[in-house]
Amino acid sequence: MAxxxxxxxxxxxxxxxDGEKFSxxxxxxxxxxxxxxxxxxxxxxxxxxxxxEKDRLHHVREEHEKEMDARVHxxxxxxxxxxxPQDRVxxxxxxxxxxx
Length: 100
Hints:
The chain is mainly alpha-helical. The protein is built from 5 helices and 4 strands. It has helices at residues 2-10, 25-35, 53-63, 65-70, 85-93; strands at 13-14, 21-22, 41-42, 49-50.
């Protein structure tokens, strides 16, 4: 009986729907999938899974913020060429194909 009480206190992940407790986040995710048929949201960067969109967004901001800050912003990337973008595509396309 004492070991059962110890297990209860070590289970820190609980289901918000039915209150069942789990010792790992993975067990909680499996519970949501199988018992409640809930959609599990994945981080596109690392694959970590979340039950709530707000938790996934928080994870992305906290864990992947450095990667996001390192990206070049569109406003910082200036095109030096002028003219119609299709004209540039057409001029580059002449290098491909059978036209001589």
